[in-house]
Amino acid sequence: MNVLSIDIGGTSFRIGAVRADGSLIKFDKVPTSSVFRTENVLHDLVAYIQMFSGNSPIDALAIGFPATLNTDRSRIVQAPNIAFMENLPVCEVLRQALNIPVFAERDVTFALCFDMEKYQLSERGLTCGIYFGTGIGNAMLWNGKPVLGRHGAAGELGHIPVWGSTIPCGCGNVGCLEAVAGGKAIARLQRDKYPETPIGEMFISHGNEDDLLEIVNGMAMAVATEINMLDPDQVLVGGGVLNMKGFPLKVLDQMIQAHTRKPLPCEDLHMIYTEDEPDKSVIGGAVYARHALENMEG
């Protein structure tokens, strides 16, 4: 079974055709702006998919968004970085145009599905994935299936309010966790205090300084918060920030341990730090679609 899988971000649009064994037939990464050229964004999306796939047989489509989706995963509710796709019948239009099953999810769920297979983890119980990029991506799987919540908005760890913070967030609220812990906070620190340091060298040049370590501590508090609330069977932590040059992974781990409830779950944590592959969410989307099709057939 070949799956066409897409990861739409505010900056980059990733697309790949994936074989049943998880290997890529074809992969491309282009600016999102080069795909969506007109006001009819769904027409643009269909046209790009058809151009990319050509005459190759595709059995299903998986499409991931950095967004909140409704419970049946047919529409985007809120997506600050791709607001032009909010409230559109994405799945319905794609199914009709392509005549194949279409599965939409948050991009972070696709990333977690990829890592579950890569590290050969059991689907039993509760698995949490926390990925620090520009924001904080968070996905939870219960026995292999996404935890959605009443409105489809479960897992928004990055939007836990932080006492005393007055920093506006792209979601519309003020004082969200991801504004002070992760990529947004590092970018703001670089802009305000270290403008001569390239963003990719922040930890190499300033990794021992208190203001940057405070951001790392905020990341640790985010992870520990989820662990203390949910007591998951396994936790995967990754994302672009952890893969920056010089990132103090041992320090992060020590901080997570310090903030996690004792004696349990701290003394029996199953935690994995993941790598940041550029095609992770694309291949993970194919994993998600394959499992979804199996459940439909079963």
Number of helices: 9
CATH homologous superfamily of the largest domain - what is it?
A: ATPase, nucleotide binding domain
Distance between the termini: 16 Å
H/E series, N to C?
EEEHHEEEHEHEEEHHHEHEH
Low-confidence stretches: none
Rg result = 19 Å
Count of extended strands: 12
Widest beta sheet: strand line-up: 3-2-1-4-7
Mean pLDDT: 93
**CATH topology (fold) name of the largest domain:** Nucleotidyltransferase, domain 5
Give the name of the CATH architecture of the largest domain. Answer: 2-Layer Sandwich
What can you see in these coordinates?
The chain is globular, with a radius of gyration of 19 Å. The strands form three sheets. It has a five-stranded mixed sheet with strand order 3-2-1-4-7, sandwiched between helices. Strands 10-9-8-11-12 form a five-stranded mixed sheet, with helices on both faces. Helix 4 (about 105-120) crosses helix 9 (about 280-295) and helix 7 packs across helix 8 (about 250-260). About 35% of the residues lie in helices and about 20% in strands. The chain has helices spanning about 30-35, 40-55, 90-100, 105-120, 185-195, 200-205, 210-230, 250-260, 280-295, and strands spanning about 5-10, 10-20, 25-30, 60-65, 70, 75-80, 100-105, 125-130, 135-140, 145, 235-240, 270-275. The chain has about 300 residues and is of the alpha/beta class.
Key terms for this structure?
5-stranded mixed β-sheet, 298 residues, Nucleotidyltransferase, domain 5, 20% strand, alpha/beta, 35% helix, 2 domains
